From TrEMBL:
Enzyme type, top EC level: transferase
Single GO biological process annotation from the record: cellular response to phosphate starvation
Signal sequence segment: none
Whole-protein residues included: 202 to 463 of 463
Source species: Alienimonas californiensis
Domain Histidine kinase: 41-262
Protein name (database record): histidine kinase
A single Gene Ontology CC term: plasma membrane
Assigned EC number: 2.7.13.3
The organism's taxonomic lineage, starting at the top: Bacteria, Pseudomonadati, Planctomycetota, Planctomycetia, Planctomycetales
A Gene Ontology molecular function term of the record: phosphoprotein phosphatase activity
Catalyses which reaction(s): ATP + protein L-histidine = ADP + protein N-phospho-L-histidine
UniProt keyword terms in alphabetical order: Kinase, Membrane, Phosphoprotein, Transferase, Transmembrane, Transmembrane helix, Two-component regulatory system
Length: 262
């Protein structure tokens, strides 16, 4: 939005108002079209597992299946699809809550170390299963950010889950953090570094968009909802922070979250 009149029409009375209105409508249209895309993406993502669950249940009910092992496999597939539905609904609700505004968060002085430890604890079993070494590199002095403690853990959990998903066995995922400054304001930079497959350059600035995936089939297969980074981006913005990514394909990715220091 621009409140000042455009150069050249500065003398025309009411020009500023007109400019404001036109841009307003453009923004509204864009917002509306984003909302429509989101609803249609969510519907599409929901339809696939629901259709699969129906088909599997129908086949089971139609029986007779050749023995319990096959029935068990069908039930396992139903469970996997149901888990996917659950994760998607949780992420859609989480994104909607973040977008609804600041008041859903308890913003206070949060020590970074314990939040990192908690996020790592929750992922230990997954890391062992993936054969990826998880570790943290704390700075010499304790660091604090202004954020919501649970949201900080969610941010770290989303980034670390991605690191585990995209790093082959034998690789590493590391969290490090350190104080820095942005325009004279003290900040804490938190880095999640992995040694995995990395992200092709043409995808780098799109991975934060909802449902954007480098390899959609693989992301779904690995349990991704396609919303993890969109949630991270929105949450970080609520705390007046930012998130960025760098990657060298084949050598890994580094996500850097910058939050105001407290
Ligand atoms: P998803 O649920 O698919 O992981 P995200 O929003 O978390 O959704 O991430 C979007 C896409 O970004 C992923 O599908 C993947 O292609 C890419 N990506 C995210 N993190 C990494 C990473 N650490 N290494 C490689 N690719 C990644």
């Amino acid at each position: 939005l621009r409140a000042d009149p455009l150069p050249g029409i500065a003398s025309a009375k009411g020009a500023a108002g007109a400019v404001l209105q036109v841009r307003d409508v453009t923004d509204l249209r864009r917002l509306e079209s984003m909302r429509r895309d989101f609803v249609s993406n969510v519907s599409h993502e929901l339809k696939t597992p629901i259709a699969a669950i129906s088909a599997l249940a129908e086949t089971l009910l139609d029986g007779p299946l050749e023995g319990p092992p096959i029935a068990r496999r069908f039930l396992k597939d139903i469970e996997n699809h149901a888990d996917r539905l659950h994760d998607l609904v949780v992420d859609v609700i989480r994104l909607a809550r973040v977008e609804s505004g600041r008041d859903v968060f308890d913003v206070r002085r949060v020590p970074v170390g314990p939040a990192v430890e908690e996020a790592l604890r929750g992922l230990r079993a997954a890391a062992v299963k993936a054969g990826v070494q998880l570790s943290s590199v704390p700075p010499p002095e304790a660091a604090h950010v202004r954020a919501d403690a649970d949201a900080l853990i969610t941010i770290l959990d989303n980034l670390l889950t991605n690191a585990l998903r995209h790093t082959p066995a034998g690789g590493r995922a590391t969290v490090e953090w350190f104080p820095d400054q942005v325009d004279d304001r003290p900040v804490i930079r938190l880095r999640v570094i992995d040694t995995g497959e990395g992200i092709p350059p043409e995808h780098l600035n799109r991975v934060f968009q909802r449902f954007h995936r480098v390899d959609p089939a693989r992301s779904r297969e690995k349990g991704g909802t396609g919303l993890g980074l969109a949630i991270v981006k929105q949450m970080v913005a609520v705390f007046d922070g930012a998130v960025a990514v760098e990657s060298e394909p084949g050598r890994g990715a580094t996500f850097t979250v910058t939050l105001p220091a407290a």
